[in-house]
Amino acid sequence: MPDDLPNSDVATMEPTDGKTPVVQFDNVSISFDVKPVLQGISFAVERGQTLILLGPAGCGKSVLLKLANGLLKPDSGTICVFGEDINKLRRREMYAMRARIGMVFQESALFDSLNVEDNVAYRLHEEQVPEEEAHKRVVEALKFVELETAIDKFPSELSGGMRRRVSIARAIISNPDLILYDSPTGGLDPITSTTIIELVMKQRDVSHTTSLVVTHRLQDAFMLATHRFDVSTGGMQPIAKDGPNHGIDPGMKFLVLNEGKIVFHGTTEELVHSDDPWIKRYLE
Amino acid sequence: MSILSPDVFIKQQVAAVQEYSILSGRAIADIFTRPRYWADIYTQMDSIGAGSMPIIILSGFFTGCVLALQSVTALKEFGAVSMTGSLVALSMVKELGPVLTGLMVSGRNAAGMASELGSMKVTEQIDAMRALGTDPVRKLVTPRLIATIFMLFFLTIIADTAGIAGGTLVAVNMLGLNASSYLHSSYTSLVHGDVVQGLTKPIFSGFIIATVGCFFGMRTTGGTQGVGRATTQAVVVSSVFIIVVDFIVTRLMIGIFGS
After folding, report:
1. What pLDDT digit, counting tens, does each position of B206-228 carry?
2. Beta bridge partners of residue A84, listed in sequence order
3. Closest CA of chain B from A41, distance in Å
4. CB nearest to A2's CB, from B37, B127, B131
5. Which of A95, A105, B12, B113 has the highest count of CB atoms within 10 angstroms of its CB?
């Protein structure tokens, strides 16, 4: 455990007001070796919004998420997170900014030498939160993902779905202002996928956290757009079609990528009624 | 394997040197700033120091034994068998102790670091660490750097001691030399400069083992095959670096101490 942490850096980063977009990409491009992966990407995610990133495999969805977290640097363009241009942040400021972002990785990326409790409490241990309080918060986070019985287990003893749930618990434990989900249902069976989507929805509707969700499963994306989490029943329910939102969550937006370029950015209704032949074929 | 054009190959090598220099520079800078991960430093010290003791004692001891056996054969021709102790002690303290310890620890720990960090890299654990607000250089590289330099210094002293003990054992029991005169000749032949030279080398070797091992681990790509490749590269490069730097330090020390 560290003997001191740059908490002062975290404190100096002002929370964003309601108007500044939480994430803003402006003409961002990145290439690996000579192959362009993303070209001229521009979009913004407002506070409390959920942006679903869709697109075929290898179109740059995960790269976009890593750019938003500063794990990769763009070749050109600017990326602002919480109103700060992340290219201009110093190393310490970057780590302080990341402390406000939760990330769920494609393959969970749990630390295999640590048990579930230490994995989930990793950030709290880094912030030197007292052991008793850390344990209490870990139990709370594990209850949120309905996995409190696995607290002493190691990642190798968990199934793929359980690992993904632990990864979500680790991402939400510090109540982040932004959550990045990188294919949270990738490689899971349909029933487990629904459980994971329900957790993403629960986080969205209970904590109203701004999030970017990468997925290649259209059914997951539309489930998120057409359902809401009901706290009283503890499960998801379809949004009433005769209600004010016509059965669609108003805070949801879609960004569709193809070959490193944005082919669509808009609401669920706009996506469904798009005339673009490529999008029509993709949605079919 | 694809064939690269010479300019692309050179660019890649220059970029690798640049990456290595940045990583090493950051790892050193992080020693002097907070936060410091003491628990990780102690764990690494245990793994590198206590864990390497058996191989260091064994290799040091038998090197000393072989050195005594071989040198007696050569010294006999000049009627200088009594110089065996001096030759074994000087060789062990100035050269073989530091270099052998460096190579042994390189084989054991540079490989260990590259494979551990490489596995973490390919399973996105390093990215997860960064995403959780922890600097992987500070958390993973700096503790290994501090632990390797610190422990290699003491491991070299142990290897020197084991080597001299091995040489003594062979000289006295197998070659029939007098133990007292053997040890006296060993002791009197060693001067301040020899000891300083012998104990400066592990500082450089420790730096090479930790930074090269971590460098190849942190830049691993290509799944489990990539981890294997990174491990091999780490051992080969660190071993070659240790021998090259040993030559440079020896030349420098001869310049300073004159022998």
Report:
1. 999 999 999 999 999 888 899 99
2. A81
3. 22
4. B37
5. B113
